[in-house]
Write a structure and sequence with these properties.
Radius of gyration of chain B: 18 Å
Number of helices of chain A: 9
Oligomer: heterodimer
Structural class of chain B: mainly alpha
Helix content of chain A: over 70%
Number of helices of chain B: 8
Largest sheet of chain A: none
Number of domains of chain A: 1
Largest interface: A-B, 43 and 42 residues
Strand content of chain B: under 5%
Strand order of the largest sheet of chain B: 1-2
Number of strands of chain A: 0
Largest sheet of chain B: 2 strands, antiparallel
Structural class of chain A: mainly alpha
Helix content of chain B: over 70%
């Protein structure tokens, strides 16, 4: 139990998937211009992350490993992710129109979000058990959500200041992300993982 | 005719090498640019892997461009790209096991590298193979050079070495900040700034 809690908080704070492993950087920079969109994207990523992690884990350990087909994992994972995103988009649009407005529009973008595939690869690499994997994927999703919302907040205050022109929009965002990563690095004292 | 075609190919090459450079001009595919630039060897291997996958996938997509149905093109690109990434992963595992271990999941993440999808969608699906090869060669080399610059700065100042060979001498304490994740963001930020500055001067001089 203690291990599960440790994994959960480590994946939110000390091993934040956006700021420590640099996963999902493209949407992190492109969609963090306002807090609402950032939050929708974060929500979508969290949902998809948990669902795809569970499905990919099951396929990997019950189909690929017994049949000795581990080398196909990249191909299978990306098909599963694309399929789940498609189905999820249709389901949300059909049954939860309110939710669709807040995060459904971001779903198509998620197939190429490297955080989702990255999570599946990391969980295989680290040999997590099923429960550990659930906590890890939930924590990573929430961590990514936290990071992008915080980033959107930071960028809103940026409107009041004038950064160097040649830094550009992307440059200043990357440097801000650096400061955020430094802040999250400070958490590393509290958790032994 | 041949000469015109050649010069057009070269201009596509330069276009994607500098003006549409994935790292500083479009800020695409920076996940791996940030993650694996702690030393030069990893960056070089990563750059070559991405370039190889990019060239093969662009060529194949360009050859198949009249067969691939419009509606399922994205998933087709993904399947093609992931097949080639699996090949590259095998090659790395066999010939360069330590580097393959250091790159870890980031080899697999070439699949979702936006550069590959971007070049497939924006270029290879519309253009004949020769231009596609020039374009992807330009993008690939541009990406490789970018991450090598980042890795050189980080390895030289962070560990005092280049390609694992000590350069700055034993007395260099090492700038630890550059080896942790936030250092990667800072170096990339300043790299984008520098590239923009050069770009601006370059363009201004052309206008005069």
């Amino acid at each position: 139990m203690k291990m599960l809690i440790l994994i959960f908080f480590a994946s939110i704070l000390t091993n934040n998937i956006a700021l420590t492993y640099f996963l999902g950087m493209c949407p992190f920079i492109a969609i963090s211009k306002n807090t609402k969109a950032a939050s929708g994207m974060g929500m979508a990523v969290t949902y998809v992350m948990v669902i795809t992690a569970i499905v990919n884990y099951s396929i990997y350990s019950f189909v690929l490993v017994p049949m000795g087909l581990e080398y196909l994992s990249f191909l299978i994972f990306i098909i599963v992710i694309a399929g789940i995103v498609q189905v999820l988009e249709m389901l949300v649009e059909r049954f939860f129109p309110v939710l669709y407005v807040s995060f459904g529009i971001f779903l198509p973008l998620i197939t190429v979000n490297c955080a989702i595939l990255g999570l599946s690869l990391f969980m295989i690499l680290r040999d997590y058990s099923f429960l550990e994997m659930v906590f890890y994927s939930l924590g990573s999703g929430l961590g990514w959500w936290l990071a992008i919302v915080a980033m959107a907040g930071l960028r809103r205050t940026l409107m009041l200041s004038e950064p160097l022109e040649s830094l550009g929009d992307a440059g200043i965002t990357v440097i801000l992300a650096g400061f955020m990563a430094l802040g999250f690095f400070g958490f590393s004292g509290i958790l032994p993982v | 005719m041949g000469k015109i075609a050649k010069s057009r190919g070269v201009s596509y090459f330069i276009e994607s090498l500098w003006y549409n450079n994935a790292t500083f001009s479009m800020v695409l595919g920076i996940c791996s640019a940030l993650a694996i630039t702690t030393n030069l060897l990893n960056a070089l291997v990563m750059g070559i892997s991405v370039t190889v996958v990019l060239i093969i996938s662009s060529t194949v997509i360009s050859l198949l461009r009249s067969i691939i149905p419009e509606r399922v093109r994205i998933i087709t690109f993904m399947l093609l790209i992931s097949t080639f990434v699996i090949m590259v992963d095998f090659i790395l595992k066999i010939y360069l096991p330590p580097v393959s271990k250091a790159l870890g999941p980031y080899v697999g993440l070439i699949i979702t590298n936006c550069i590959l999808m971007g070049r497939a969608e924006a270029f290879a699906i519309k253009q004949p193979p020769y231009y596609s090869i020039m374009d992807s060669l330009g993008s690939g080399i541009g990406y490789t050079l970018s991450i090598m610059v980042l890795a050189a700065v980080r390895e030289l100042l962070g560990a005092g070495s280049l390609f694992g060979v000590q350069v700055l001498g034993e007395s260099w304490a090492g700038w630890g900040l550059l080896m942790i994740p936030s250092g990667a963001f800072f170096v990339l930020g300043f790299y984008i700034m520098l590239a923009n500055m050069i770009q601006k001067r370059f363009i201004n001089r052309n206008v005069d």
